[in-house]
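Form 7-S
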Amino acid sequence: MTSTTRQRSNVARPATFFGRVRAAWRGVGLRLLGMGIGTVVAVGALVAMQLPLLHPAAAVTVNVGSLPLHATVQHPHWPSQGEAAIVIPQLGVTQSTSSALLPIASLTKMMTAYVVLAKLPLQLGQTGPCLVVNAADVSAFQSMKSSYQSSVAVAAGERLCEADLLRGLLVHSASNYAAMLANLAWGSQNAFIAQMNAVATALGMVGTHYSDVSGYRATNVSTASDQGRLAAILMANPVFAADVNNTSVVLPVAGRVSSYTPFVGSFGVIGVKSGRTQAAGGCDVMATMMTYEGRPTLVIAVVLNQRGGDLLGPAGVAAIALTQSVTPVSIVAIVHRNTVIGRVQWAGKETALVVRRGLQLRPAWAPLGSGSATYSYKVALDHFSRPLRPGASVGSLTVRSGNKTHTRVVAVRDAIGPATLWQDLR
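Output:
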């Protein structure tokens, strides 16, 4: 029995040794596993504490001031003959009866003034460069006078500066001053005419072509809307706007000469330019100011090819009737679909906030007797907590006009959201 017991004891000892080794390794593994889990938990806690810093809240900026509008004028008093247009640059209005190309007579001189002021800019009170009238200038005046072109008297040796020439050009429509301005600014009339056409192309006046600097030729053609847009640009120039708002002007030799622009100084008319020839009929570009939404708003009315009487009379009557038909309550203001009303920034990304569906602010909404289609609006935005897909709703636009309220969904134009954790950590 002793021998047998000893043999069993010799067999069991190796098994017990390896078991102890395995148990020891299991202990090491469990300790390592515990350390790994602890490390992961600690790192996770640390990351969780930093997530607010890794994902800053969205910084939202919404446009303030005027809600972006496009507007149309309801039932304007279009003339029964010729062509006409209304331009209200601040409201994005350009309406016309047609896009027909017609002779424009002395409306050409608006582009003459534009090209001169672009080459030789003036500030109010400045005279600009000067010239001395020569024999050729006197001969040109006499020729124009004999052909019944509008002009002003000049004398050899007379000194005329840019400011004088512009006043005579714009107030009394002096064609001889147009020629002298062309020579002063560009050295020759041919070079000046080429520049006039280049500028017309650059301004998008696709229906406009000039063949002289004064408009005497019937081949000076344009559209009513082109002339309205040009006038709106020019009226932003203080020198031009001051010149055309004169009923008369005093010139060095000619003395006091009157404006040919109908109704300037009356009925709120502040310019701009008129013209007449047998080919063009009576033409008038008329500027007035209207108060819209509490802000001064420029209104340009253009009439072309008016007939009857002295031509300018019918043109002025048609222009003033068209002008007076444009009132705040005649305007339908439109917020188009996808109009951008602000921007949202999130974690270094940015996209536009847009109106998902358009709306109209009709004049009938104006409070009765208010004389103005006043409106107010506000934008309410949601809290951004998740990535947003293109077109995702993020809030609302509420517009109130009179006793009417309209609400539209505000959405993001593009996808936006915080960076992923991997993007933050790498």
